[in-house]
């Protein structure tokens, strides 16, 4: 059983690594774009994407209806996952909800600071990215049925489906998607039109959400890392799909 000092040291190492990645990304963000290709936005393509997203969401709803409240898988806790406390902390759970909500507000604010045409395009991409990320996250959660850290506590009794939705973190995947969506979209703009402060704020809030979810006993470190990779990957690939 890891001690609080061991957990704290491990989380500090994770935060240090993420900070270095963030700084490297901001350096790249400040470089001028070599070219400024227009995004390939077409009604037909967007209709296909949104239609696919709607179908995926419908499948998720049907899949969840078939899941029993007692379906929970206790994965073997290995490696960095041993850093996760096996008890629930309401305070840190609320903290993660606050950072998540703040990231959403900041993302909306970032969109409001763009010119009308850019705002509409960036808003379209952000909506698609978040919806894709949410759909994939929910599907994986329901297929994995991984027990949350607090569900591994001695004497715990499963009371709801959410107890088996640990892998991976939806809070993290969505906040990471917000940060990455803003970053990748801004990379195609001229330096004067970019908002690196928004990217920095969203990334910091995403990192805060990751750490809070682990300390809250809601997720293992691998859950939040997988969520961050998914959210970032979806934002990158969908932006590429649209021409950048």
Total number of strands: 0
Largest sheet: none
Principal-axes geometry comes out as globular
Give the averaged pLDDT, no decimals: 86
Stretches with pLDDT under 50, minimum 5 residues: 17-37
Helical segment tally? 7
The structural domain count equals 1
SSE succession: HHHHHHH
Provide the helix percentage.
55-70%
Distance from N terminus to C terminus (CA atoms, Å) equals 47 Å
Taken as a percent bin, the fraction of beta residues is under 5%
- How does the helix and strand content classify structurally? mainly alpha
Calculate Rg over CA atoms: 19 Å
Report on this structure.
The protein is mainly α and 244 residues long. It has seven helices and no strands. It has one domain (40-241). The protein is globular and about 55 Å long. The N and C termini lie far apart (47 Å).
Features:
single chain, 244 residues, mainly alpha
Give me the secondary-structure topology.
Blueprint: H1 4-30, H2 43-65, H3 90-112, H4 116-144, H5 170-186, H6 196-215, H7 221-241
Gist?
This protein has 244 residues and is an all-alpha fold.
